[in-house]
Amino acid sequence: MQRRSDRRPVTEWWRTVDRWFLFGFIALIGFGIVLSFAASPDVADRIGLDTFHFVERHAMFIVPAVAVMIGVSFLDDRQMRRVALVVLLGAMALMVLALFFGLEVKGSRRWVRIAGVSVQPSEFAKPAFVIICAWLFAEHLRRPDIPGNLLAGVLFAAIAALLVAQPDLGQTVLVAGTWGAMFFMAGMSWLWIVVLGGIGVAGLVGAYLMLPHVANRIDEFFTGAGDTFQVDTGREAIVRGGWFGQGPGEGTIKRILPDSHTDFVFAVLAEEYGIVLCMVLVGVFALIVLRGLMRSFREEDHFRRLAVSGLVTLIGLQSMINIMVNLQLLPAKGMTLPFVSYGGSSMIAVAITAGFILALTRRRPETRFGHVRFAAPAPMQAAQ
Q: InterPro entries, per this entry (predicted)?
């Protein structure tokens, strides 16, 4: 049993961390481990790799991901902003580099090779972008003469421009939705809502008219013409699974699903384990998002409130987009399911996001009458 007087860092961390968030993230990692065995061996066999190639690589990335998540969760607010700034600047520099020297996959340049490992910089930019925007919005709320909202808008425009240039419309929509939600929670006026809504619609129309691959995906989604093999196969896998699934290892549709280990891992879960377990997975994501929003609504510090709400919105929107693509409710986006899909860059980036959430929601010590106690979120403090 831990003593209240034990002040060791690990003991202090365990006493102050939000365990609902912690167990939620661990549950998602557990889903990812199980589904890596279910979804990836057939993909590896099809492309001539060792049967458990992707399973082994997925397991290999879990160790650094958990270490990153726990390590980041020890940061205080000032350290977090500094780390986020370094990560954001580095990721943006690599995104520019990817446009000229990156690996081209399916017509997009989103990856760069570092020390023999393919890295997708945009994945790391997302959580850092949320933290920096939350700080800028909070600074404007603290001192209206600081142009925090304007700077956050300029930063969003820069990130969006890099994503469109790759091109990666799915990530652009994800970042835009998260930034818009944070701006709204920071007190966006109705005028801004109308203006930004109009810009968003104009951007989607422009993407449809100017980017052939975007137009093709949208046309395929609404007409059913063209190459819809993967989305149709994913839907068939979900239907075949029924309520309780075909059983572990008994799925057959997954064997011909090209991206069963990444974009369509939810379809594999449905085929082998059924809709019931799919609802459990959705429930874990809902727990993380709803608890984050509840914690942020009670938070008086503007930075923490906006950062937590922005980070859980990022996770919630990404998971929702992935699942809706599997259910044929959205055109294919090429977006992973956080902590569940295969992908080293995605897993480490989501671990950073989770670490930020754990750090921001840890109970903070208050000193009263010479004693330290852990209390609810402290009154608003000036952002550093």
A: FtsW, FtsW/RodA
How many Å apart are CA 134 and CA 131, to the nearest integer? 5
Query: Can you read off the two tokens belonging to residue 345?
Result: 């860059």
Beta pairing, strands 117-119 & 108-114: antiparallel
Q: How many CA atoms lie within 13 A of 382 on its CB side?
A: 2
Section 301-324 average pLDDT = 94
pTM of the model: 0.88
Sign of CA dihedral 250, 253, 258, 262: negative
Asked whether residue 366 is domain-assigned, the answer is: no
Query: Does residue 377 fall inside a structural domain?
Result: no
192 assigned to some structural domain: yes
Go through 86-114 and write b for each residue having 16 or more CB atoms within 10 A of its CB, e for each that does not.
ebbeebbebbeebeeebeeeeebbbbbee
Tell me how many domains the chain contains.
1
Percent of the chain residues past pLDDT 90, beyond the cut: 45
Q: Is omega for the bond preceding 379 within 30 degrees of 0, making it cis?
A: no
Residue that the structure tokens 């377990």 belong to: 277
Rounded Cα gap, residues 275 and 280, in angstroms: 9
In a domain, 41, yes or no: yes
Question: If we measure between CA atoms, which residue out of 375, 267, 240 comes closest to residue 328?
Answer: 267
Query: pLDDT tens digit string along 123-156?
Result: 999 999 999 999 999 999 988 888 989 999 999 9
Range of the domain at 116: 9-361
Place of tokens 């799919």: 278
